[in-house]
Structures are given as structure tokens and as C-alpha cells.
Request: fold
Amino acid sequence: MPQLMSQFIPQLTSQIMSKLMSQFMSKLMSQFMSKLISQLTSQLMSQLMSKLMSQFISQLMSQIMSKLISQLTSQLMSQLMSKLISQFISQLMPQLMSQFIPQLTSQIMSKL
Reply:
């Protein structure tokens, strides 16, 4: 019995220690990998969202500015043309008519 115990106890102790170490390392690696994956995922998602938002805002601002400039240019050109036509009619047409009508009348009278 003492001989059996002297062989059995070291083997049993060795097996128990081996299983305990195996379980401990397994849990430790599992927790470590879980935290590592969680942090990597969090950082990657943060960077991805940051880049996506940056691109989205950049494109949106570009489109907004393009439309604003287009509308402003269109409105300004419309107002400018309207003013030019209005000035032409109000200022130049009377002058042209005052010069053109006497000449036309003179030409007509000379042919008659």
C-alpha cells in the first residue's frame, strides 16, 4: 500500500496540475483573445465610421456648394439680363427712336 500510494499520489498530483494549468491557460487565452478582438473591432469601427462620416460630409458639402453656386449664378445672370434689357428699353430705345423716326420720315418724304 505505501508503494502504491507513493506511485499514485505523484501521478494524481501531476494529472491534477496538468488539468488545472490547461484550464487556466484556456480561460486566460479566451479572455485575452476576447478583449483583443473587442478592442480591435471597436477601433476599426471607430476609424471606419470616422472616414465614412468625413467622406459623406465632404461629398454633401461639395454638392451643396455646387448647387448654391449654380443657383446664384443663374439668378444673377437672370437679374443682370433683366436689368440690361430694362435699361436698354428705358434709355436707349427713346434715343434710337428720336433719331430713327426723323431720318425715316426724311427718307420717306424725299422719295415722295
In short: The mean pLDDT is 89. Residues 5 and 11 are 10 Å apart (CA to CA). The chain is about 100% helix and 0% strand. Helices lie at 2-111.
